[in-house]
Amino acid sequence: MRRLLLALPFALLPLAIAHAQGDEHEHEEHASLGAHEHGVGHLNAALDGKTLELELESPAMNLLGFEHAAKSTADQAKVAAARAELEQPLTLFSLPAAAGCTVAKQELESPLFGDKPDTEHEHDHDEHAKGEAAEHEHEHEHDDQHSEIHARYQFTCNEPAALKTLDLREVFKRFPSTHKIQVQLIGPQGQQGVEATAENATLSF
């Protein structure tokens, strides 16, 4: 949680440091099995006072069922549906109403969302006119590409004492291709690493 957790007190920095080893290691990490393993997601969670921060990282395959650029109407609908789910974090993470949590910041990031101008695609489309060979090469490149979805959230919880657990059942229910989530959790009881599954989806702070 490089962008959010670094704002927390020094007591909470070990997890942030582990995820901020430098840009030179980022691509290597994402190429490893820890960063991109189908069926496996990663969640960083930190509760500090009234501030709860979550960062979910997942291969697009877990959330969409594919990792290529959405070209068909059906694929585009799946992207829109997944994004709509991710834009409702209070429901997705089943935060208890008694905690009085509201979303302070929210950021979704993926090349499949098309948020940023894709000059490479524009260039590739120009190359398509050069012949079928270039087109097949372009498609093969996208077929081999690994795409990820990152979702970052910051909540303000008026009654943090009521936030004793983090429930991931809705994540597994709404994204059934996600089989397990590796979690790094920081809370009043310290830092812990746990593995959540659909059968064991409730985490304790």
Automatic annotation (TrEMBL):
Coiled-coil annotated residue ranges, if any: none
InterPro entries linked: ZrgA-like
Signal peptide coordinates: 1-20
Biased composition (Basic and acidic residues): 115-147
Positions of the UniProt region annotated as Disordered: 111-147
Keywords in alphabetical order: Signal
Organism: Pseudomonas cavernicola
Keyword Signal among UniProt keywords: yes
Protein name: DUF2796 domain-containing protein
Domain of life of the source: Bacteria
